[in-house]
């Protein structure tokens, strides 16, 4: 076991990751504990790296999202791209930042059970979404918008029982314009969750010709695809209508309600403000 860990690309002889505080209590680490942590590591980080999704697509979605919510990859300026948009890598793990996060350490200490791991990710993600008021749009930032978009995509993918595509553009990641109105699906309507979209950044040369790109007609409204609306919206801009935006808002309202119910939040004033933001007419 020790030899396998030492040969792993993330450790290369360094076992310090396994000598940490579990649940903030000093503890002795046994060989059985080390095996559990390493098995979980292989079933999480290595599964993402190898894009091995056939058995556990929902877990893979939530794991990628947990890394984002812990800022293992941070939303921000994309190197050699325009300052008009920002992005974050969702599927590519090109660092070891997760090794230093309490959430990931705790994740690796759990029993290697798919349901347990998924529920752990959900509780952490939805708790952070509540604390950071991710779904409130009155104070827009690309970080909140992209994180909120990815949370909605992951919850929707679970409902559809699909794995979100392993795609990060040309290592530009999931992206959105800094000016919120540039992210609208219909430019004559107000910005809202239902009238907005995230895409993937495109960079060319030394900052020229940069923009946020969205998927093509073949994959439009496919639940596996990140850079497409959730429902109803026509691919051709000239065919988009207010009614489609309303339907898209209703779909997103349902997803946000799932998030709140899952995290056992009450229908308080903050939540009402969120529902107003996404265009829902009534709270049930």
Structural class: alpha+beta
Cα end-to-end separation:
53 Å
Widest sheet: strand order? 1-2-3-4
Gross geometry: globular
Helix content: 25-40%
Characterize the largest beta sheet: strand count, sense, and whether it forms a barrel: 4 strands, antiparallel
The tally of strands reads: 4
Instruction: Quote the beta fraction.
Output: 5-15%
- Poorly predicted residue ranges: 21-25, 265-284
What does the radius of gyration come to?
20 Å
N-to-C order of helices and strands: HHHEHHHEEEHH
In short:
The chain has 284 residues and is α+β, with helices and mostly antiparallel strands. It is built from 8 helices and 4 strands; from the N terminus they run H-H-H-E-H-H-H-E-E-E-H-H.
Describe this protein's structure.
Helix 2 crosses helix 3 and helix 3 packs parallel to helix 5. The protein has helices at 2-7, 31-49, 57-69, 102-108, 114-131, 142-160, 242-262, 269-278, and strands at residues 85-88, 174-177, 199-204, 208-213. It is α+β, with helices and mostly antiparallel strands and 284 residues long. Strands 1-2-3-4 form a 4-stranded antiparallel sheet. The chain is built from 8 helices and 4 strands; from the N terminus they run αααβαααβββαα.
